[in-house]
Design a protein that fits this description.
Order of helices and strands: HEEHEEEHE
Shape: globular
Low-confidence stretches: none
Helix content: 25-40%
Number of strands: 6
Strand order of the largest sheet: 1-2-6
Distance between the termini: 49 Å
Mean pLDDT: 87
Strand content: 25-35%
Number of helices: 3
Structural class: alpha+beta
Length: 164
């Protein structure tokens, strides 16, 4: 086995072509996002986003994520990556991937993988058989919010949902 390092030339930044049209489109998208957040999203724990005590940014909540996806004409789908449902030992967990895609052509524009388990403090003292669906839905919710932030460029405004 060789310990030789091979360095390949990368493209010079000056070779990248950016049109004034693409810069204008990006500027319009940023303004649209600002206007949408300020006029259409409600800040509260029962709303679209909220400031969670002890966190630096406002957290996007599921209703806000769904509205952002509608604004940008995006759809989403979930895939369970891994699951454990063992009622004998009392362990429930789901790892879920959410893919966000453009409705017009189906191209995936963002994804996020999230995890939820009944070993988390919030669920620890509940009967595993009673919370299987809750654990699955929380995993999906976390994945949806993360994928939405990624796909819409909303990280300037929001962080991952931290209210659980």
């Amino acid at each position: 086995m060789s310990s030789e390092i091979i360095v390949q030339d990368s493209k010079d930044v000056s070779d990248i072509k950016v049109s004034s049209h693409s810069i204008e489109a990006m500027s319009e998208r940023i303004q649209l996002m600002k206007k949408f957040v300020s006029s259409q999203l409600k800040e509260s724990m029962d709303g679209d986003y909220a400031k969670i005590p002890g966190t630096p940014k406002k957290s996007l909540l599921k209703p806000g994520a769904e509205k952002l996806l509608l604004l940008f004409k995006l759809g989403f789908k979930f895939t369970i990556i891994n699951q454990v449902i063992d009622l004998i030992i009392g362990e429930i967990s789901f790892m879920t991937k959410c893919e966000v895609y453009r409705k017009e052509d189906g191209v995936v524009v963002g994804e996020y993988i999230a995890f939820c388990s009944n070993k988390e403090k919030k669920y620890k003292n509940q009967t595993p058989a009673d919370i299987v669906n809750t654990i699955l839905k929380m995993s999906e919710k976390r994945a949806l919010v993360g994928a939405t932030i990624s796909a819409t460029g909303a990280s300037d405004y929001f962080t991952q949902d931290m209210e659980e």
